[in-house]
């Protein structure tokens, strides 16, 4: 099956498609506000990536590169990706779209951090993610999962 992952241009059309996803929230509303205020014509560097089947956006995620100076997870300290809002629409789950998005993120060959929803742990385990050792000051209410390419280790926490 064809699974092309594309960077999603943020415009009214894309924001309408986003309304089908459960995790529609402040991030999308602020983008809408920016468009309405004409502060931006289009987001050129949108953090959203997705998969279209025909005219339907069936899966999406946000992916953002965190700079090395803010890295508190990996050894050696380096740029890493943070992944959030991974979601596949109900009718399209279990067909490999979630995996395709995660593999797209891995293809940058940078470590990845995500904060999974309850219930999705089996999926993340299958994708090769592991629990980061919990560090209260760093993680607070999060339960981060991490994935590391060859040669990268988890930073030791005290
Ligand atoms: N529980 C257990 N395993 C799961 C799973 C789940 N909820 N979702 C996917 N998997 C497994 C698949 O069986 C598959 O395994 P395989 O390679 O051994 O066949 C692998 O993970 C990849 O599955 P894929 O088809 O790419 O998953 P997906 O496209 O459905 O994406 C989610 C996974 C979790 C991102 C997607 O289902 C989603 O957005 N769900 C929303 C709600 C949610 O989090 N549900 C969790 C269960 S209630």
Q: Summed up, what is this model?
A:
The chain has 158 residues and is α+β, with helices and mostly antiparallel strands. It has helices at residues 12-18, 26-36, 97-106, 121-126, 136-139, and strands spanning 5-7, 48-53, 56-66, 74-75, 80-88, 112-114, 130-131, 145-147, 153-154.
Helix-strand string: EHHEEEEHEHEHEE
Rg from alpha-carbon coordinates? 16 Å
Tell me what the CATH architecture is. Answer: 3-Layer(aba) Sandwich
CATH fold-level label: Aminopeptidase
**Number of E-type strands:** 9
What is the terminal separation in angstroms? Answer: 46 Å
GO molecular function: acyltransferase activity, transferring groups other than amino-acyl groups
Keywords: Acyltransferase, Transferase
Domain N-acetyltransferase: 8-150
InterPro entries: Acyl_CoA_acyltransferase (IPR016181), GNAT_dom (IPR000182), YlbP (IPR017274)
Textual characterization of the structure:
The chain has a single domain (5-154), classed as Gcn5-related N-acetyltransferase (GNAT) (Aminopeptidase), CATH 3.40.630. It has helices at 12-18, 26-36, 97-106, 121-126, 136-139, and strands spanning 5-7, 48-53, 56-66, 74-75, 80-88, 112-114, 130-131, 145-147, 153-154. It is α+β, with helices and mostly antiparallel strands and 158 residues long. The strands form two sheets. It has a seven-stranded mixed beta sheet with strand order 1-2-3-5-6-8-7, with helices on both faces. Strands 4-9 form a two-stranded antiparallel ribbon. Strand 5 (80-88), helix 3 and strand 6 (112-114) form a beta-alpha-beta unit. The termini are far apart. The protein has five helices and nine strands, in the order βααββββαβαβαββ. Keywords: Acyltransferase, Transferase. It is an enzyme of class 2 (transferase). Residues 8-150 form the N-acetyltransferase domain.
